[in-house]
Amino acid sequence: xxxxxxxxxxxxxxxxxxxxxxxxxxxxxxxxxxxxxxxxxxxxxxxxxxxxxxxxxxxxxxxxxxxxxxxxxxxxxxxxxxxxxxxxxxxxxxxxxxxxxxxxxxxxxxxxxxxxxxxxxxxxxxxxxxxxxxxxxxxxxxxxxxxxxxxxxxxxxxxxxxxxxxxxxxxxxxxxxxxxxxxxx
Length: 185
Ligand code: SF4
Ligand code: SF4
What we know:
Helices cover 58% and strands 0% of the residues. By secondary structure, the protein is an all-alpha fold. It folds into two domains: 3-102, Fumarate Reductase Iron-sulfur Protein, Chain B, domain 2; 110-183, no CATH class. The protein is globular. One iron/sulfur cluster is lined by residues 38-39, 41, 49, 73-79, 89-90, 93.
């Protein structure tokens, strides 16, 4: 990480408030690096998990919300499990993604953002994922029409993708959760 990247950009009170609400005390980090050493995706990140935590403590929101790491994180929680200070790094990544969208930042990895959106819309609509519909929505919004095409055909042939959506009994409750989380920001 360059010196420019760690230059404080003005503490973001709201970012700190969101992180506190998510139960993340970024100031507890003493930069031991255990999170970064265990992250299976760190080779693709532009900021290591430990750098994300330090920048969050500085309130360097601009750098964080423009980073690829927050979108490439797979939420596997390896980092969170390895942290000796109980810092929830995976949840921090969630908060940063939400914040990037709220503040109108263009996701540094647009296809990942398109996938998140298609997944959430599917759950909101049916109470669970309808894979075929979700893939269609993702393909249309990402423009990635042919990626994994052969794999999709194989899954269809083996009956792993339902042609029609199925609903669940608690659909209304799921929609309520979405409404409530939107209301609470
Ligand atoms: S494992 Fe925890 S304390 Fe160590 S660098 Fe990562 S966030 Fe900081
Ligand atoms: S949750 Fe994200 S940052 Fe943490 S180890 Fe997994 S991929 Fe890496």
